[in-house]
Amino acid sequence: MGCCNVEGFVSVDERGQMVLPKDIREKAQIGAGEKLAVVTCQTGDKVQVIALIKADNFGEMMKDFLGPMMGAMFSK
Questions:
Q1: pLDDT at residue 27, as a whole number
Q2: What string of DSSP letters covers 7-62?
Q3: What residue spans define the domains of the chain?
Q4: Is the four-CA dihedral 4, 7, 11, 15 of positive or negative sign?
Q5: How many whole angstroms separate alpha carbon 53 and alpha carbon 63?
Q6: DSSP 3-state assignment of 4?
Q7: Are 40 and 49 in contact (CB under 8 A)?
Q8: pTM as predicted
């Protein structure tokens, strides 16, 4: 099925830090110093999903996602 896969698991240390496994970083072409947007989805007050999106791609993704919705709103 589509776009979502469980790629692995990470642990959070006592300082709240986590390491993205090397194989995932390589597959996603994430290098040292690269910025990632942290996006959450929640139900009520409970966060259900935490996603990482490359900052370089974030603006274009939001435009692709929100563009059609905004266009539909303003065409009414």
A1: 93
A2: -------TTS-----HHHHHHHT--TT--EEEEEEEETTEEEEEEEEEHHHHHHHH
A3: 1-76
A4: negative
A5: 14
A6: coil
A7: yes
A8: 0.67
For residue 4, give Cα distances in angstroms to 1, 7, 37, 45: 8, 9, 18, 24
Place of tokens 């709240």: 16
pLDDT of residue 69: 62
Amino acid letter, 75: S
Predicted confidence pLDDT, tens digits, the chain (76 residues): 467 788 889 999 999 999 999 999 999 999 999 999 998 989 999 998 898 889 888 887 777 777 676 666 566 6
The CATH code of the domain at 1-76 is: 2.10.260.10
